[in-house]
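Allow me, if you will, to draw on your knowledge of protein folds for a short while. I have a record of one protein: its chain in single-letter code and its fold written as discrete structure tokens. I should value your view on which stretches of the chain appear to form regular backbone elements. Thank you for your consideration; the sequence and its tokens are set out here:
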Amino acid sequence: MPEARKSTGSPTVRRRELGALLRALRNMRGLTVDQVAAELLCSPSKVSRMETGQRGATQRDVRDLCDLYEVTDAAQRDHLMTLAREGKQQGWWQSFSVPLPHMIYVGLEQEATSLSVFHSSVIPGLVQTADYTRALHQNAVPRFEDSAVEERVEERSTRQQILTGDNPPQLEIVIDEAVLHRPMGGPIVMREQLSRLIKETERPNLTFQVVPYSIGAHPALESNFTILEFAGQAPTVIFAEGLVGPIYLERQQDVERYLLVLETLRRMALSPQDSVRLVAKVRDAYTDE
């Protein structure tokens, strides 16, 4: 399996960075998506997908857009062309036999400078043990083949390399206490997982808190989400997940709402030190009986 973090960066982030720049250029020229589509003889949806990063722009697309937007600076045009070329590359996460349902997320995660994760149901993937990941996927619906489960284990392991690279992201993890008490895979798996979680909190770039049962209701009781922030022009992204599939939010009002929820959870949660003590207490309560 290739290294998780490429020197050219994540193609997913490159597409979104390019899209943000193209959208800014269009707005500077006072053009609508429909007007641009008419000039390029393409559909408005193609222009929109390029601007949101859902579709990679070709170098020809960028050349035509630069001409339309009257971009004359050679360095700026070269930068846009480079983003288009790198956005067409394949990430390691696209090579699995069973496609990842959260492929866009993994591409974003690989280059995020900051990740703020809240889970109300399971240990976040970046700090999962292999056996915990296996237990999590063995009851999937529809059921995974054993080979597909092992690919999910490999995917988690490869993703976790970002925590040990030369430029690891700032990682904040907040979980509901219920996560600690759900015996995923049985007591041996849980003891190993919670020991791993305690060890991970020693990283200088990781902050960890638990929202205890005693709090009662909180604003993310039925939610799992991640706030991803990036260097450069790529916009902040909210990733939310559930049975309906992954949802990606970038609107300013959505980002502000999730940031407010995260800040509320921080205040309601135990301190990092008390959180680790709680994890250790729960871990020690898992016995073979």
